[in-house]
Amino acid sequence: MTSTIKEDMPLLASREGVWDGIYRHLDAECNLLDQHRSRLFIRFKPDSDFPYHQTNYYTWDDGRTEVHDMPCRYVNGSREVVFDSARIKGMVRELSDDPKRRSTFLYWERPELPDVYFYEMINVTDCGRFRSRVWQWIREGEGLIRRTLIQEKKISNDWRALEPDA
User: Fold this and answer.
1) What are 143-161's pLDDT values in tens digits?
2) Could you list the residue range(s) of the whole structural domain that residue 100 is in?
3) Are 84 and 75 in contact (CB under 8 A)?
4) Whether 4 contacts 139, CB under 8 Å
5) CATH number of the structural domain spanning residue 70
6) What's the number of domains the chain is made of?
């Protein structure tokens, strides 16, 4: 069955492509804890079991790297993408109340942090080339413990042309 994700979630679909950015991790008092570069590949494959597929490549100045692959499920008409990978379990939705259609909301959990949950807001500029993201790290019984601020620029709509294994 072909997915209707691109028709159901046009704002999310507009983010298909390759994004370069900087992640800045701050503690609750806004002190810088960590910083690294990123390249995200956002793919839509309507005929796949995983019609939304995101892969994040992270690089630190000291040479460390990480890759996180997140194929996601979608039920036609649900307007909710479900993340269920080794790294995160959660969901993403467009904010239907946003009159400018710029905002996406995510909620997720990470298995290695059982008492922490995450909320993320993604806002894209009207031109579609820039976006900002904020993660709030909440620990049960403690509240806010960390924030992650992300600035990104879309460098290509064609992820196939830049993906290492495409």
Assistant:
1) 999 999 999 999 999 998 8
2) 5-162
3) no
4) no
5) 2.40.128.20
6) 1
Three-state DSSP class for residue 12:
helix
CA 162-164-166 angle, 5° bins: 80
Bridge partners of 144, per DSSP, are: 138
> Is residue 70 within 8 Å of 57, Cβ to Cβ?
no
Specify the length of the chain in residues.
166
Residue 54 has pLDDT above 70, yes or no: yes
* C-alpha to C-alpha distances, 16 to 39, 87, 104, 139, 156, nearest whole angstrom: 13, 21, 14, 32, 9
Q: What is the pTM of this model?
A: 0.92
Task: Report the alpha-carbon distance of residue 64 to residue 58 in Å, rounded.
Answer: 8
Distance of alpha carbon 51 from alpha carbon 73, whole angstroms? 6
